Amino acid sequence: MEGGFDPSDERLVSLTKDGNLDAFNSLVERYQAAAFTLCLRLLGERQAAEDATQEAFISGYRAITQFHGGSVKAWLLRIAANECKDELRRRVRKDPSMSLDAMLESEDGPAEVPDPGEGVGELLERKELSAEIQRMLMLIPFDQRQAVVLCDLYGYHYEEVAEMTGVSSGTVKSRIHRGREKLRQLIPAN
Length: 190
Prior knowledge:
The protein is globular. The longest helix is centred in the N-terminal third of the chain and has 23 residues, at about 20-45. It is mainly alpha-helical. The chain has helices at about 10-15, 20-45, 45-60, 70-95, 100-105, 120-135, 140-155, 160-165, 170-185.
């Protein structure tokens, strides 16, 4: 963006607040993959995740003056997660009879990046496992799914998840514990 160096998030936010759209676009480029992956895990559908990600960045741009420090990534992921929650609410309002099973019948599972060293059998097995994990994630309540995904799949600490979700660390710990318990119950015994 500026002279070949990578400006800090804080600098990009400051430039965006001054009306520099290129600065915000740099933030989008920096965090769009993380936001999309989060939306895909929370919604379970590629098209819905793409839409939610786009809406999250539009909302972030409109609300940039309300950002007063902290982690830009956490702030943007919080907006993305809230957009996912809103999307799920819209679906239920649009069709109250829509079952969870119908919401899960999507061919668009989470994107898989193939490992060049793995064979076709391993790739298929990994895709099946990923699809099964996604299916189970969609069976637990949104707040628990969000906490588990941010902690267990993204590797964020409880305090970071608390900042992203706008709840206390204790609430995050509780949601993760309950979510993991529900996932354990869903895993078939072999």
